[in-house]
Amino acid sequence: MAQNPAANDRGPASPAAGGGAEPRHWLRLLLIWVPLSAAAILVIWFVWYPHLPPGDMTDAASGQQFDIAVLAVTAAPVVIGVLLYFVYALVVWRARPGDDGDGAPIYGHTKVQAWWIIITSVVVLWAFAFGTYELIVPAGAGGGEGPSPIWKLAGVQTAAWSPGTNDMLQVQAIAQQWTWTYRFPQFGGMETTTLDLPVGMPVEFHVTSLDVIHSFWAYKLGVKADANPLVDNVAYVKAKQLGGFEVRCNELCGIWHGAMYNSGQVVTPAAFQSWAAGIETKERSIGVLAALPPYTLIYDPTVVPQLGRNLVKVAGITGANGYYYPPSDPVQP
Amino acid sequence: MSVPARVAALAVAVAAVVGFGIFVALYYIGSEGSLPTVHYTASGGQVNVVLQEDPQNNSSSRPDWVSYYVQDPVTRQWQHTTLFSVPANTRVNVTIYGYDGCTPLRNNFWSQVLGTTGGTVNVQQFNKARALGPARTVSLINSWASCNVGHTFAIPAMGLFVPVPSPSATATLCSSSPCTPSSGAYSLEKFSFTSPSHTGVWRWQCLIPCGGGFIDGNSGPMQTEGYMTGQMQVVA
Q1: In the listed set A89, A110, A137, which residue is the last one of a domain according to the structure?
Q2: Do the domain assignments include residue A270?
Q3: Rounded to whole angstroms, what are the CA distances from B70 to A143, B32, B127?
């Protein structure tokens, strides 16, 4: 015979259909729920947490790892409570063979309703407060904050970057179908196909795109920022550990979206300076720096700065340069 | 309508929808699978891959799309495909005939030669098989300096990025594909790289937005195998 614990808990021993004393279902549930929840919390915190993605290579990554662990600890008692009630109801309140009677009537129960509202409100408000705090304190938690970030990472904005300081390293991540490149304005505006970063120093990413919408996703760094054409999207990170990582596109951007990735590594500040200065020297010597457009936060692909005018008006250099073709096209120059 | 009749009607309708879906899927899979793969085998520890890029192609469905061609090493015939295979851990000597005109790079960083042996390419300009100047070994072909880059050949996963020079802006381009040296102006580019030591498939693409008629120039031939993107299969 199906019964309702709220109805049955009104008295210490409401008579049941079978005539025996009705057990205290809430107490039973509580005595099962508390140890199960405690065990789940301990397992989550001490066993699962250290292995949760995205790891702890950077402050943003470890912050996300902590957030996931805290939210898992918050959710575990709720999930266990729901499942426990479900299983308990199936086992205890199931209809026995031969029992064709109606279940006990369900009445309102003010105390249960009040506690339900209070507990769920506390959980939701806690998640809201915790999530907001965790977004603000670590300077956006590795997410893109747009061109004018509200929450900034502590660091000194300098024209030249030096190891062993608190200088903010400026890194521009440029997306195009289907690869990433990186520009370093503090190293002459040099550009690379791989991304090295110094450990223990603040980094300011400026993410943009030259064509369609992409998303800069350095999973192990805990950084993910949309790459929109003509938009500068700022994100921060500070690496805590040496090691390699991958950068992927996380926005479906065409047939080779799945292959739009390259690699990077976190190295010592001295090694980073050596690497960056070496590339700057090479690109300066072979003319790459002169060929690149002046460093800006966004780029209009239809403008060639070296020629000082709009690309579509440059005689002899017309073509598929980022605009809609007239109906008479396609043609080739 | 009786229940059996309803069930039968429903079954027929479901079968029709599923059958149509399968037909569409097989149609596209079948059309994509028709591209041939050109197999290059090593000789003396090296393999010679020969490509050309044209302002048009000889297909019946999309003749105005720019396109790469791959030369069959045995017959010397040009195959309208962008699939080829090379042996693993082998020096790959690439020759590209650039028959198409210039288009500026969206990111002029790709004017730089990256990933080739020595970090350079050897380029020479021709007009109807007549050399217009000496061959030059360069590490940069600045597409924003003048009309001089037609397309690129890039295998991003290998770090190989090569700008392919174009004939000058005033040159008369080949108008019938596959182009031949006598059909118009072209550039000849040669470079080498070492194929990966393990087998697999490496996709390659052009980084010039050369899909005329498409937004940002990045659709159409840019996203279609057999035209401006393809795969290099590395075999044992």
Answers
A1: A89
A2: yes
A3: 44, 17, 21
The end-to-end CA distance of chain B, in Å, is 64
Domain of A46, in residue numbers: 25-89
| CATH classification of the domain holding A229 | 2.60.40.420
Selected residues 122-161 of chain B with any CB under 8 Å from a CB in chain A: 139-140, 142, 144-147, 154, 156-157, 159, 161
pLDDT tens track for B54-64: 988 888 888 88
For residue A262, what is the nearest residue in chain B, using CA coordinates? B157
Which runs of E-coded beta strand occur in B33-82? 37-39, 46-54, 67-71, 78-79
pLDDT tens digits, one per residue of A247-293: 999 999 988 899 899 999 999 999 999 999 999 999 999 999 998 98
Of the candidates A167, A141, A138, the residue with the CA atom closest to the CA atom of residue A272 = A167
Chain A residues within an 8 Å CB radius of B139:
286
Locate A194 and state its tokens: 């791989």
Number of domains forming the structure of chain A: 2
* A25-43 helix and A59-92 helix, angle to the nearest 10 degrees: 150
The Cα angle at residue A241 between residues A267 and A147, in degrees rounded to 5: 80
B65, B104, B229 ranked by CB distance to A321: nearest: B104
In this predicted structure, the answer to whether residue A131 has a pLDDT above a threshold of 50 is yes
Please indicate, yes or no, if residue A136 is contained in any of the structural domains.
no
Chain B contact set for A255 (CB, 8 A): 223-224, 229
B214 at A interface, C-beta within 8 A: yes
**What secondary structure does DSSP assign to A165-226, as a single string?**
S-BPEEEEEEEETTEEEEEEGGGTTEEESSEEEEBTSEEEEEEEESSS-EEEEEGGGTEEEE
The answer to whether A321 contacts chain B (CB < 8 Å) is yes
Contact A301 B140 (CB under 8 A): no
Q: Which of B66, B111, B216 sits opposite A211 (nearest CB)?
A: B216
Any domain includes A205: yes
Predicted confidence (pLDDT) at residue A228 exceeds the cutoff of 60: yes
Of A196-205, B86-95, B210-219, B221-230, where does mean pLDDT reach its minimum? B210-219
Helix (H) or strand (E) holding B194: strand B185-194
Entry pTM: 0.82
Helix, strand, coil share (%) of chain A residues, nearest 5: 40, 20, 40
Q: Rounded to whole angstroms, how far apart are CA atoms A69 and A72?
A: 5
Q: Is residue A120 one of the residues assigned to a domain?
A: no
